[in-house]
Every structure is written in C-alpha cells, then in structure tokens.
Amino acid sequence: MSGDKLKTAVLGLDEGGQILLKAASQTGHFQIRAVADKDSNTAEKIATEYKCSAYDDYRQLVVQSQLDCLLVAAGLYSCDEHIRMAIKKKFNILKLAPAARNFEEAAEFVHLAEDEGVKFAIVNPSRFAQSFLTFRQLLQQNEIEQIFLIEAFYNSGDLIDPTWYTDPKLAGGGVLLRDCYEMIDQIMWNFPVPQQVYSLTTNQAGDKQQRLYLAEDTAVVTMKFNDTLIGSLTALRRAGLGPRQEFLRVYGKNKIVTVTRDNLTVSDGSGQSHKQFKYNEDALGCMAKVLNNFALNILSPDENKLCSSGGENLKNMAVIESAYLSARTGIPEEPGRILG
Questions:
Q1: What is the edge-to-edge ordering of all strands in the sheet holding 120-123?
Q2: Residue 164: which of 327, 38, 57 has the closest Cα?
Q3: Exposure of 52 by Cβ count < 10 A (0-12 exposed, 13-18 middle, 19+ buried)?
Q4: Domain annotation for the chain: domains and CATH numbers
Q5: Total Cβ atoms within 10 A of residue 220
Q6: What is the pLDDT of residues 53-91, one digit of tens each?
Q7: Residue 270: count of CB within 10 angstroms of its CB
C-alpha cells in the first residue's frame, strides 16, 4: 500500500462508476491508479482528470495493474471473469449492487474472496443514510412494538436504464434485482430471512412469447417471516407512471413508521403523523461513507467492521432468487434452502 492510501482502479465509468470515483477521491484513503470503460474517450477524459492510466479493456487493467482495491461499476456480463482474476491477484473488491446476477454467482465470488483472504463487499448506501439509521435505531430500541406487517414500494418513474437491463441473460433480472436491491437489503438488514417468498412478475412485452425474453418490469412479492409477521414489495419500472418513488413502511401495535432516503415519519395507529424527521442526504455523501468504511476495514480491520460484506448480501440474493423461482413455479419458495 502507498502509505495509508489504497492503490485503486475503477471498472465502468457510467454515472454509478463516476460517483464511486468521486467518493473514493473524497475520502483520502484511495490512490486512483487506473480507470476503465468500454468507451475509450470516456476513459481517457476521466483518466486525465484524475491523472491516472486509462483502459478500454477490463482484462488489461487487471492484468497490468497491481492494486489493493478494485471498484466495480460495470455490468457483470462484461467483467465477471476479470473480477475472478482480480480476486486471485489479491485485489479487494467493492461492487455496486446487486452482488451478482444470481445466488450461485454471488456465492462463488464470496467463497473465492474468502479463500484468497480479500474483501468482497457490496455498495448499499442506504445503510449509511441517516433516515435508515434512525429507523434501525428505533427497531433496536423496540420503539415499534409488535410489528406485524412490512410494506415496501418502488416506482422508477422516468428513470432511464441501459438497454441491457431488459435482457435477463445479461442483467440477471429486472426491477427486483436491478432496482429494488437496496430496499431488499434494508429488509434483510433489519429483519430475519423470510421463511417463504411468493411472487408474481411480468413485463410490458406484447405477447407471452416475447415476455419470456425480457426481464420483469413489474413485480409483487410477498414474504412470510413467521406466524405473526408478513411483508410485501411492489415494484414497477415503466416510464410515464408518475415520479420516482420508494419507501419502506412497518406497521406495529401502536405505530406506523415510514422511511425514505430523506425522511422518516412516525404515525399513530390511525395514520396521523406525530413525528417527522427530514434529512438532506445526497448520493455522493452516502457513497463516500460506504467507501470510507470499506477503506478503514482494509487498513484497520480489527477496529472497523465491514458494513456490507458479500457474505451478508447472500441473504438478499437468496430472497431475490426465491422470488424469481416462485414466479416460475407458481408456489412459495424458501430462501433458507438456497442459503443452505
């Protein structure tokens, strides 16, 4: 390592990759040595800004570099083998969510990293958003008694996704995996793995045959945690259906708590709000906290716990895998069986 700085490169320079890069540079713990993107002009431009090497070939970056960390924003369809190579070269990996295209692939990365003695972590910025931290604190202090229902909702609004998101072979899944991963992570971070998951998914293709070849853009997932706690997640990714909206809401004996990235509202049993907390969080600020935690865990692991390890994220992937399996079988599936 270069003093207290981690020699680092970034794969993929779309909006997410550039936020990763900016956040890494803000923490003071990373020395950016290289960036890579399939668009050579983008790679050259950003490399000039950060005074580092530019690549338009992900494999060449991994082969020709000796790094402490690799920050991954590129789609796995374009770099899965290069991530494996990087882990075998003892690079610590921080990847934008989701953890992988399916549970099996995620487990492979996790176990390979364990074998090589390096970190494999997933970016879940909501874990560092003050609204969700306040929500977690309320749960840990038992401020919400006898929770019986968890409700989550996601609407992408007019968010424009890359075209490969619609291809299940490239993307691994649609709105559940690509867009709702952080929301599912919040549920799995704060509650036990559900005993059963049942789901229905569809997309806007014109006929049944076409729908087989497109990732889902609409999904309804129900979860049974135990005999007294159930949950639901409704998700849609269709332009023109209102502004982007997402929230997590829990119903307890005497309180209803609703949390978003910027707000937390506590209501009484009739739904009348009596406490509201507003926060001014931005994507870059939360990302910088993620990067800071990742760096400190590598530099001083005994003093700094990794907040979103790959192993933890296998719970998210098991729930998502169960939802996709249930949509195919038409019956509830058990994430516990997938986790083994």
A1: 53-55, 30-36, 6-11, 69-72, 92-96, 120-123
A2: 38
A3: middle
A4: 6-125+284-309 (3.40.50.720), 126-280+316-339 (3.30.360.10)
A5: 16
A6: 999 999 999 999 999 999 999 999 999 999 999 999 999
A7: 6
